[in-house]
Amino acid sequence: MNFSTRLEFTDNRCAEHSLWNPTTCRWKFTDCEDTSERLTTIVPQVETIKKHNYLSFCISISLLLGCAFLISVYHLMTRHNSTTQYKRTVANEDNDTTKKNTNITEIQNINIIPKNDDKSNGVILLYVKSSSFFLKFMADFGNILKRCCHCDVYDWYGVNELEATELGPSNWVNKLRERGCRIVWVDTPFSRSLVLSHAEENYQKKLLLCGDFRDEAFPGILNMEKHCINDPTSLYENHFIIRFDALPVHDDADDPFADISPYARYMMPRHFNQLCLDLSRQVSVMENNTFEVIDTTTEINEELQQLVNTLKNSSVGYEQST
After folding, report:
1. Where are the transmembrane segments (predicted)?
2. Which domains can be identified in the chain, with CATH numbers?
3. pLDDT in tens, 55-70
4. Is the distance from CB of 234 to CB of 175 less than 8 angstroms?
């Protein structure tokens, strides 16, 4: 860049009416100075600022990419460790379950009680009404089962469940099943007769003898559970069939419970210990709880035996239908 300066001078000798009268006395003094050398020091500063901003941008991008890479590596390592730990836990549970299964015959006189009570792993008692005495009998049996297994027992004829079952017995069972509850089915002559007559003409006659909406829903709930079985290995984990010596039934082709539990039957009171053991074992597998073993079998068995004797000796005990 160039800067110019213009100066004008007047000579006093150039006055009017004097002998010195040359042409107009005016000089132009022009002095130009090239200042490009001084400005060159500013241009490199602008280029330095641009280079500095570009370098900062590159460093920021590199740091972000590095952080993203480290986070990804940490996430993959955490996921791998979690998967490995899960596989080890499942393997340990399988080994523990195998050991328990091999020693079932050695455990005959114990009850297994979970230290941590979990209401989501309760037991549903499903049976068909025959008389008021049988309802009282089942209520007492449910209390004994609750004391031994330390889990909630939901009796659909219980007073506490009346309001819920009135809204729909099937919905009541479905909600409890979704929470992880198992079903204990009571195999009696009257329940078999009701289920087998479900497709017959005399089904309405059977319902008149029952006189209760829960008995009417019993065959439908049984069929629903049959269709919900996708894994055969879950048969003996979710469904338990019990019978009472005082109410004998026989294994035949017309067994309505064969589809949900083909082989396992618990005879009460003889197999009560085994029932409690199996129910407690399923809670252990699902929740991985720690259990303590308490020997209360003698007292409980005597109480249960007396209860079954009252059913056997009662003149209003159970009404069998043909």
Report:
1. 54-77
2. 2-39 (no CATH), 110-313 (3.40.50.11530)
3. 888 898 989 898 999 9
4. no
